[in-house]
Amino acid sequence: MSGTALIAGVSGIVGNNLARHLADTGWAVQGLARRPPGDLAGVEPVAADLLNPESLRQALAGRRPSHVFITTWLRQETEAENIRVNAAMVRNLLDALSPAGSVRHVALVTGLKHYLGPFEAYGRGNLPATPFREDQGRLDVENFYYAQEDEVFAASARDGFGWSVHRPHTIIGYALGNAMNMGVTLAAYATLCRETGRPFRFPGSIVQWNGLTDMTDAGLLARHLAWAATSPAARNEAFNVVDGDVFRWAWMWGRLAAWFGLEPAPFDGTVRPLAEQMAGDAPVWAEIARRHGLVEPDLGRLASAWHTDADLGRPIEVVTDMSKSRSLGFLDYQPTDRAFFALFERLRAARVIP
Predict the structure, then answer these.
(1) Which of 145, 146, 174, 189 is catalytic?
(2) Residue 179: pLDDT band by 50, 70, 90 thresholds?
(3) Helices (H), the chain
């Protein structure tokens, strides 16, 4: 089963990979962003601002998508502003689509901050036990993920469409200029270490080094979104979405180092954030890009050190349960080290890294 998909946030990691997957599997795909990419084969670009209802009204006039995928958000200075802005984006989009009456399903991508709390209270307070399960519910804190969900639920009650909520862990995937991109950030960091002879140091906490964790490949997430949007068993359900394996960074760091031809530096338990390690690296990267003919000389468009530091510096173990999806029929599996390697190979082929 397929249909006409409208992807809000088509320029990001999730939206970009989802658009490619849906287009490759027979969907008609419309990709919405303020500046939608024009190089996605089979994807019709739709330029609109989710915070501007008139912009949406004009851009969506005459469009009748059957499935809507909301894969974007805007980070603000405070959680109160996160709630105001990101709830408005969801509300404006669904309000603009409501008159046509064409929407059968809306999928919302959020994440594990559903269980861990927002940036202002991340990983603090009375957290649910791991592995996180969907029936653990909401924390007693303000959280823009909850506000986004509530907008979807309200529009569903009004318009009668089904919904699904998808909660990935840290996503590995191809997208440049994205604010939450550990894979590309680590690729840039490893390249800097190799080109300058600096040690390839794990930047995070000893808990993350020794504890179990998991991640989410963007391709697997795309398949999960398509499955939930077309499977009756997944209607009106929230899902965790991870690769299906677990690992320790004590093992993974060496795997990543080897791909780049590096020896990992010994880890002594000291947190050395990438934001500090890479603080002066913009001109260094620009020179590397010039020397190797890379397509992006601006390190700021590649690396999101703050986000990688937040994940790798957590003081708690984070593992996610996928039993709900498995029991309802989604059985895909992706080894996480291979997801990293596939991303690095694509970055090299695209001349993003040497």
Answers:
(1) 145
(2) low
(3) 13-24, 53-60, 79-97, 113-116, 144-159, 182-196, 206-210, 218-230, 249-259, 274-277, 282-292, 305-312, 323-328, 336-349
